[in-house]
Hints:
The protein is an alpha/beta fold. It folds into 3 domains: about 5-85, Orthogonal Bundle (Arc Repressor Mutant, subunit A), CATH 1.10.10; about 85-155 and about 260-290, Periplasmic binding protein-like II (D-Maltodextrin-Binding Protein, domain 2); about 160-255, D-Maltodextrin-Binding Protein, domain 2 (3-Layer(aba) Sandwich). The chain is built from 9 helices and 11 strands. The longest helix has 25 residues, at about 60-85. It starts with a helix and ends in a 10-residue tail after the last helix. This is LysR family transcriptional regulator.
Amino acid sequence: MDWDDLRIFLAVARTESLSGAGRRLAMDASTVGRRIARLEAAVGAALFLKTPQGYALTAEGARLVAPSEAAELAATAASEAVRAEAGITGQLRIGAPDGCANYLLPQVARDLCDAHPGLEVQIVALPRVVNLTRREADMAIAVSPPDTGRLMVQRLVDYQLHLAGHRDYLARHPPLRDLADLKGHRMISYIPDMIFDRELDYLSATGMEVAQISSNSVAVQMQAVRAGAGLGIVHDFAIPFAPGLQRILTDRIALRRSFWLIRHADDRASRRLSLLADALAQGIRAEVLRLEGLLGPCPVRGT
């Protein structure tokens, strides 16, 4: 049985489509289909059932996943052994919520690529938790530790969030001295039914029930606050990217959250991914501390 056919099989199993596997493998979908047909002929069984939702594994296909993943690990280990003297190279795909992806990972990716010129970093910003079981990424950053799955979980860093508004907006609207004063202001937050993690429910900290402007994207919310459209809970580490933003009511509203690094348990044996995970963790910690340190102490009361 050809390892390359197993590699293609795993890509289809994880993406549940020929086109998705083709994009992941830089291969034409028709070629993927032919290779799957060749593998099915070799094992003497259908591995996938085509459904309206995509390509679902048959019972025979499901039994082939574990040995294929074992072959994948062996191939990865062999490749790393050959490249050991050349340093860390190849592709690293990182999944992250868009706040981290927009305001932290670009700088961290820059430093990783500077340190390892042969490295290619891909940042996947998704408004949901990245699925490592389906290999959507090599590792993921999340705002809550997962409670299921064969995963390695590492706490990275705590970060701060505060209510903020643009100075132009604050100059045009009534002063804010206490939480009750928020009733005279427009709020910006998440779309309630698109909050994919309870840690992202920021609006409840303000005592307000409705946000007049909402988005499933932290970056969009941040741009709305920057445009003077209203007030929103924002990451302290993002404020340096938005001149004119001011933290307000900091003695009334101050949130602390954490980033977690998540890896598939099978990757424990990969020295390459372990080294990259350590470098990624150090980079994110340092960048959060640097950016939050640019803000200085919080104002005690009001604007």
